[in-house]
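Budget justification note: compute hours in this period were largely spent on complex prediction jobs such as the one shown. Inputs:
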Amino acid sequence: MGNPKQKWTAEEEEALRAGVAKYGKGNWKLIQRDPEFSPFLFARSNIDLKDKWRNLSGGPGGNGSREKSRSSKPKPSTDGQQSSAVVKQSALPKVKPLIDDSSKSFTPNQYNEMIIEAVSALKEPNGSDNRAIVGYIEQRQEVPQSFKKQLCSRLKRLVALEKLEKVDNRYKIRKDETFGIKIPSPKQKGMRPKQLQNTDHITCDAVEEASVTAAYLIAEAENKSFLAAEAVKEAERVSKVAEDTDSLLQLAKEIFETCSQDEIVLIA
DNA sequence: ATTAGGGTTAGTG
DNA sequence: CACTAACCCTAAT
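Corresponding output:
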């Protein structure tokens, strides 16, 4: 009647694939609304997307969720009519996890990293909203239920730290981020053991001395690099402690607020 | 409001 | 009729 089945076009299919690559399968509404895909998918509902994806992944090659009692035949594929259509059998889902891990909880720092990673990977010019961020992260990482709650405060925190920028309800990476550790130009301290200059008068002594000098410099450089590495480690440690403390503080605040709504708290 | 999954229908050989 | 792709229904979250 009024509904002659609308076959999916190649563009729609591509958009769907790209959408799943971006948000992960299951975030159909999100994909459908994304300005990047909506021009192609405006005629489709989120349910359509889901059904189409089911067909795509259940069809040729991959066995999707939709193989049931219906007799499945091995598909002899006699003729060569479709030989070019299967080209892009994608390596779509399956992204390596950020952190190999099976314990379902993360430190605040790890959350921060995941969020930053997600936002920068999504590369949305107007920033990414909560759902996009969650979608991205959930696609490649199993996260606890509490994650979404934590996400809010993590985002606030990252904004406060000026690592993210909030525009409307979207977040983007701050460009002017001075993450790059300023490497101080190596100062020439006046402790150089010897200057190598007379090239026309190379003696064994000179060579030996040069090698000693070189060895000295190398040792010194190694020492400095070691110290730098230690400093970085220490900085990371301090930052982690700060984050942990911060999240504890936030937790305490939340508890306090909850309590103070219900009753007068008895604090001696 | 959305999603997953089972069911139904139209199109095709 | 058998099969597939598109569409519909509904419980679960």
